[in-house]
Amino acid sequence: MTNNPGSIVIGTAGHIDHGKTTLVHALTGIDTDRLPEEKRRGITIDLGFASFEIPAPDGSPLRISFVDVPGHSDFIRNMLAGAGCVPAVMLVIAANEGIMPQTVEHLAICELLGIERGFTAVTKTDVVSPSRLQEVMQSIETFLDGSFLAADRAPILPVSGATGEGLATVRAELLKLALRTQFETSEALLRMPLDRSFVMKGFGTVVTGTLVSGTIREGQSLQLEPEARTVRVRGLQTHGEPVQSVQSGSRVAANLSGVDAVEIHRGQTLVSPKTISAVDLIDVEVRLLENAPALKHRASVHFHAFSSETMASVSLYGYEAVQPGTIRLARLKLSEPIVLVPGDRFVLRRPSPAGTIGGGRVLDAHPEPRQRKAVTLAWLELLKTCSPVQQIKPRVHRRKTNGISLAALSAETGLTTPAIQRHVGPALQCEDLLLIASDFLLSHGGLLAASDAIMTRLQTGQQPVKSSELRSQSSLSPEVFDFAMNVLVREHKIQLRDEMVSIYSAGTPFSTPETDQLATIAQAYEAAGLASPSVMELASRFNFKESDIRRLVTALQREKTIVRMGSDDLFIHSGALRKLAVQLAPLRGSVMDVARFKHITGLSRKYAIPLLEYFDRQRITRKHGEARMIL
Fold first, then answer.
1. For the segment 546-571, what is each residue's pLDDT rounded down to a tens digit?
2. DSSP, res 415
3. What percent of the chain is predicted at pLDDT more than 70?
């Protein structure tokens, strides 16, 4: 069993009976019409799948996979389920008929879905005269002008699936297309929208789909959304070949345990556990087609994204109807939840008379509730020009004093937590963002607002006040409250003794030399970084009694300024631990031994071993024999 070769999935598009299935059969040797009714009627009804392997210029194998879609208008929903997951398309137009209604609709759908690569195959060239072929080729060139398949961007290739004439040229173009099209999703969360499920004798439940992002490995636990059902991958195949793992951009068949095939339906999505969940309320940018009727506020439409389909209610920002050919911001309420992240494309169709009217892209899959309209519009205008990576800082800033966990930010952006940790590095360095409690982000403005809330409460109420009571009155989360309190203590704005808090004042009895001593010891730990001094070393340096230094250290530990490493003598400043966690984030998934950890940190074994044991407890690392896996 080996890993699968590089691959690309290409969708077919075009009018009924224009030779899509015949051409795919000629290229791959596989008949994608598998249903008895398809055989009886001679048309494609549901999605079909086929592939062939071709050597890349460097000799490595490259898998070209096809999702063959139906061309009949009655089965457009099936066409959308197939086209929603492909990065490139082969538009098929028959030479004997030329451009037909589904040719026009399929091209519009491909553009609405953001597909930017492909080419056009003019089929059935063996049944027309050379003059007719030339006439059709010219009309097609005119039709495609201005689209992503325009002749100056993508070739228009004559071919006959019946005689084989032109197949070599089509294969060569498919290879070029595969080499030009790269899935840039290494930082994106794992997502595999499902298009089929069935029972295979001797194996059990099997699902198929296109892996949009991430990597799936044999034996891996995944989550089925919606419903958050845990399943395990017993086996993997790509077009009948067993593999140990699959990369994004592959057609995948996964043998699952923990679920019956009858419990799975098209439109569900496989994701990594506890990373992303389905949503039913999204803010979007909608574009209406030139020939579509106006779209009114509160209209009900069919919503299609990836392999999913559901009804949606449209709430327009501005209320006046969307006019044909224009772009507007809207909020969609979905009848059924779907796994969506910013940047995902969708198509809208009217229920009656059935027809594609437009589509767009998701801007925010986690809109803030009960927010003023002007604030929401300004937020969406910002998102329109931001990539998911560029949205990280604004999404932390908009949470103000609430902050946001790395897991929640990952679900909002569709990026993995290690990717987020990599990209926030510069913002953490300049302290525009702050990493608190090892997995929680807070903006600098959020910290100032939280500190102001604490100080305002102290200035307007009786002092001293219990720390727990102050947190409740300030309405701050435990993570933000503790962090802000530590900052205020270090800045000599408040003083803390025996869980009682008051405003710092050098002239009051509540203010004692202990406050300055705490600040001195905290600064010593902060300056030492990871190679922190022992309790006895601090006592000697500052001429304190050992009992006094231990009392101060206990107070700093209670305030979470320092963290005990498992020994009564070894404590490390929480800021140094956060910086080390950020440093290790890019290495997620790799294995390191103690020697490598010592090299990365510059520490001796005296510090390295307790630190690694602490990271094991915090689930930043996991021990494997004498080495550690970075999680």
1. 878 888 888 888 777 888 887 668 89
2. B
3. 90
Q: What are phi and psi of 368, to 5 degrees?
A: -70, 130
CA 267 – CA 77 distance, rounded (Å): 12
CA 136/CA 575 separation, integer angstroms: 69
pTM: 0.76
Hunting for tokens 């059902």 — which residue is that? 229
* Closest C-alpha among 362, 296, 284, 352 to residue 323: 296
The β-bridge partners of 205 are 199, 256
Residue 151 three-state SS: coil
Whole-number Å distance between alpha carbons of 190 and 181: 19
Q: Which CATH superfamily is 191-271 part of?
A: Translation factors (2.40.30.10)
Closest CA to 238 of 257, 260, 219, 216: 216
At residue 285, φ and ψ (nearest 5 deg) are: -110, 120
- Determine the pLDDT at residue 436: 84
Contact 246, 215 (CB under 8 A): yes
CATH 2.40.30.10 fits 279-375, yes or no: yes
One of 1.25.40.10, 1.20.140.10, 1.10.10.10, 1.20.1530.20 is the CATH number of 386-511, namely 1.10.10.10
Burial of 122 (0-12, 13-18, 19+ CB in 10 A): buried
Of 63, 59, 74, 64, the closest CA to residue 12 belongs to 64
CATH of region 6-180: 3.40.50.300
Q: Extract the tokens encoding 392.
A: 């990280």
Sheet holding 6-13, edge to edge: 48-55, 61-68, 6-13, 88-94, 117-123, 156-158
Element housing 367 (H / E)? none
Residue environment code for 265-304, b if the CB has 16+ CB neighbours within 10 A, otherwise e: ebbbbbbbeebbbbbbebbbbbbbbeebbebeeebebbbb
pLDDT tens for each residue of 17-49 = 888 888 988 888 876 655 444 344 443 444 667
